């Protein structure tokens, strides 16, 4: 059955060629494919709607509709949404981030750091890799660059208008897998399937930040208020992004917040500047009210300096071996 009445209905086999699975999405599989009519390489996400609950179908519809409205440099571009008449599946077509994701980027550096093939005397063979003693790490300028582009995308999401009212989109699935890198080295936010919109009306902005419920997201990047079953909002995305940036700096999956009674310590390597360490720690405050908004983060002087500098995001080395 088609997921949405306004979607285009067509057959995947007739309109796409050379489908290749490149990953698993929030509700299904992801493929790269060539669009037959113009030979454009795109991303195709497949959703098996018959195996989804009614609530999940509704959420998927909302997420797709949100992405349809998002036209911004740091958000993956939506192309089409359609059902396949030959099967009970639904598809969404978007731009393909040809240089992979931040997950692949982190894996690239992690493999380099643990590889015995790199001698102590040689310079790291990957762009943006630096050495501190025997440790390999990502150059600070690249971390700032990634932070600047990611926060620009979140600031756009978190400050929307709908029917003349201020509202905020909460992404709810921020993780390294949700950031793609296109052919020009531009960071793109993807995976909008569980995104939701919260309207502010005439209420204080704080009410937007406490207007969403539901335990979603990748556990290692899930904000404390989500794990505690509390109301939350855009500031939960800030925590998740802080975890992503922390992982870029440590090349380790961030520690999982367990409960208010447990300790949560943010370790940052000392080869990074105090400015960067303080910046990331500010995003990882247990109390969401103490976290800066995406707009405040975007105004950080270091972000503006590195965002416009000629610092390329290195292409993930899928074949380091």
Automatic annotation (TrEMBL):
Residues annotated as domain Protein kinase: 16-311
- One Pfam family named in its UniProt record: Pkinase
Alphabetic keyword roster: ATP-binding, Kinase, Nucleotide-binding, Transferase
Which top-level group of life is the source organism from? Eukaryota
Molecular function, one GO term: protein serine/threonine kinase activity
Query: Which InterPro entries does the entry link to?
Result: Kinase-like_dom_sf, NEK_Ser/Thr_kinase, Prot_kinase_dom
Q: Which Gene3D superfamilies match?
A: Phosphorylase Kinase, domain 1, Transferase(Phosphotransferase) domain 1
Keyword field contains Kinase:
yes
Q: What EC numbers are recorded for this enzyme?
A: 2.7.11.1
Q: What class of enzyme is it?
A: transferase
Carries keyword Cytoplasm? no
Q: What is this protein called?
A: non-specific serine/threonine protein kinase
Q: Which organism is it from?
A: Giardia intestinalis (strain P15)
């Amino acid at each position: 059955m088609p997921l949405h009445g306004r979607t285009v209905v067509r057959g995947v086999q007739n309109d796409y060629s050379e489908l290749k699975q490149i990953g698993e999405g929030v509700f299904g599989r992801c493929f790269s494919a060539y669009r037959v009519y113009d030979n454009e390489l795109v991303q195709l996400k497949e959703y098996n709607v018959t195996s989804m609950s009614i609530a999940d179908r509704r959420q998927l519809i909302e997420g797709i509709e949100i992405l349809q409205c998002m036209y911004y440099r740091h958000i993956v571009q939506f192309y089409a949404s359609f059902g396949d008449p030959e099967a009970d599946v639904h598809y969404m077509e978007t731009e393909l981030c040809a240089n992979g994701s931040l997950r692949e980027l982190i894996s690239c550096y992690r493999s380099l750091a643990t590889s015995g093939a790199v001698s102590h005397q040689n310079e790291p063979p990957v762009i943006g890799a630096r050495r501190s003693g025997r440790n390999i790490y990502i150059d600070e300028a690249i971390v700032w660059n990634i932070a600047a582009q990611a926060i620009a995308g979140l600031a756009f999401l978190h400050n929307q208008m709908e029917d003349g009212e201020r509202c905020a989109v909460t992404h709810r699935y921020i993780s390294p897998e949700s950031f793609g890198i296109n052919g020009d080295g531009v960071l793109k936010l993807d995976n909008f399937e569980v995104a939701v919109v919260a309207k502010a009306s005439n209420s204080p902005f704080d009410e937007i930040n406490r207007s969403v419920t539901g335990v979603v997201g990748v556990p290692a990047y899930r904000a404390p208020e989500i794990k505690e079953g509390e109301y939350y909002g855009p500031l939960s995305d800030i925590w998740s992004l802080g975890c992503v940036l922390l992982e870029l700096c440590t090349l380790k999956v961030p520690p999982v917040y367990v409960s208010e009674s447990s300790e949560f310590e943010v370790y940052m390597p000392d080869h990074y500047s105090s400015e960067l360490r303080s910046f990331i720690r500010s995003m990882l405050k247990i109390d969401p009210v103490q976290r800066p908004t995406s707009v405040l983060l975007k105004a950080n002087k270091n972000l503006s300096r590195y965002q416009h500098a000629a610092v390329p995001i290195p292409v993930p080395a899928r074949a380091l071996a």
